[in-house]
Design goal:
The protein has eleven helices and 16 strands. By secondary structure, the protein is an alpha+beta fold. Helix 1 runs parallel beside helix 6 and helix 9 packs antiparallel against helix 10. About 2% of the residues have low confidence.
Length: 459
């Protein structure tokens, strides 16, 4: 009898211990699963953040090289098809070593190229001739805007990117005058975009475009690193100077190649540590989501809106103002001699100047005015529901506030000035036209001696 009772008691204890063990094991494995899922989500968000950050830097770098074509185009249109002293104008605008040359082609035929030395063979090239017409020319004519293509093989082993912009005269018919073209050395164009840093972070990457006609995929840039089978990746489209590219970041290691994951599984048996790790993982996930949302709208250096945010919201606001019949103005602002400041005091102090300028400008704007960093040292403002005299007073206030006060980082002190171009947004005016006219007016402010504002002459 005693032996039977002992046997039943032993079976009860064993079954209870097994039940407790299985319960704790299930709970631990559930928490481990949550941590692994959160880790994967964190890694995915980090890869999305890297794509967004690098995409912005690539867009900013290439747009800085290409956007000066707007000034050349506006100058041609402003002068009714004439562009005096093209080499002098091009030399003032093109300073990046990655830019190989800039051409203008009235009626599609290249008439001038800068620099001319070494590029003499380009003179007379016909962009519109059937035997030389390329998809980039067709796309530029189809979209009626600056387009980017490449990489193209310019010579054996040497590749380039090309930006091509059709130029239309400001007349009722909008006649095609010709083209402005920029050729950029590849892969030098991607220096400083942070793509090389991805390998040290444990990621590979690929950037490619898809031909809309042939549906063929063309690789633009790739890390070419080794990766584990089954490695996770994130793929997102990015806009670069009116071109649609695809950006993929791939984890160089599969999940089972991460020792910390095996360590977390071992440590996860301790329930308290698992709960703490899950809570911490959730908190990190929330912070990263908040940072991701902010990064998509704000320029990280100056705190102003970024260019993508401005284009999306300014277009809606311009259409709303047109329906209401309210007057509005576009400002294009460019810090004078900013390259000299960078060369003399370094890029770190140049960043101080950019941040100080953005802070001073935002301090005098109204809450509903749109202010954004357009690229490099250029900024743009959409001033809505304002009269001409008030718009000019605001421009003078921004200019004088910048010129009258020193900028200092504690060791270096300078005075920086700004040139401002102003264009009235007329009925039926597209956002890109308003920006182009303000850009042309800003260039005339530069020509007249800088540190001033110029209102675009609509006559």
């Amino acid at each position: 009898m005693r032996k039977q009772t002992f046997t039943h008691f032993a079976e009860y204890v064993l079954s209870r211990s097994l039940l407790v063990f299985l319960t704790i094991l299930t709970l631990c494995l559930s928490l481990v699963y949550v941590i692994v899922i959160n880790h994967n989500q964190l890694e995915r968000l980090q890869m999305e953040q890297l794509i967004l950050e690098r995409g912005i830097r690539i867009d900013d770098t290439l747009s800085r090289m290409l956007n000066k074509t707007y000034i050349i185009s506006a100058t041609i249109s402003y002068n009714y098809g004439n562009i005096p002293n093209f080499p002098q104008l091009a030399s003032m605008l093109i300073s990046d070593p990655a830019v190989l040359h800039v051409t203008i082609a009235p009626n599609g035929i290249v008439s001038e190229v800068y620099p001319l030395r070494g590029n003499e063979a380009l003179i007379g090239h016909n962009f519109l001739a059937e035997e030389s017409a390329d998809p980039l020319t067709k796309l530029a004519l189809q979209d009626e805007q600056l387009v980017l293509g490449g990489p193209f093989e310019a010579s054996p082993g040497e590749y380039v990117l090309r930006g091509k912009m059709p130029v239309y005269l400001y007349d009722p018919a909008g006649h095609l005058w010709g083209f402005v073209s920029v050729t950029i050395e590849y892969p030098m164009a991607f220096l400083g975009t942070g793509l090389g840093e991805l390998r040290a972070m444990g990621y590979d990457y690929e950037i490619w475009s898809v031909d809309t006609q042939t549906n063929e995929r063309s690789i633009i840039s790739t890390g070419g690193y080794s990766r584990s089978p089954g490695a996770r990746y994130v793929e997102m489209p990015i806009s670069v100077a009116n071109a649609q590219w695809h950006f993929r970041i791939i984890s160089a290691r599969a999940w089972y190649n991460f020792p910390e994951k095996w360590l977390s599984i071992a440590v996860s048996i301790i329930l308290s540590l698992l709960v703490t790790a899950a809570a911490r993982s959730h908190q990190n996930l929330k912070k990263l989501k908040d940072k991701f949302e902010q990064l998509s709208n704000i320029d990280p250096l100056t705190g102003a809106h970024n260019r993508r945010y401005f284009v999306e919201h300014a277009d809606l606001q311009v259409r709303r103002l047109e329906r209401n019949g309210r007057e509005s103005y576009m400002f294009m602002l460019d810090l004078d001699n900013f390259k000299k400041i960078n060369d003399a005091y370094g890029h770190k102090f140049g960043d101080v100047v950019l941040k100080e300028f953005a802070e001073r400008t935002m301090a005098v704007l109204r809450p509903y005015d749109l202010f954004a960093r357009w690229g490099g040292e250029e900024f743009v403002i959409l001033i809505s529901e304002i009269e001409k005299s008030s718009a000019l007073s605001l421009a003078e206030r921004v200019r004088s506030d910048m010129a009258s006060r020193h900028i200092s980082d504690g060791t270096t002190e300078v005075t920086a000035t700004v040139s401002i171009g102003i264009a009235r947004i007329t009925s039926g005016c597209k956002l890109e036209d308003a920006v182009s006219r303000a850009d042309a007016a800003m260039y005339h402010a530069k020509e007249q001696g800088r540190n001033r504002y110029v209102l675009y002459d609509e006559g």
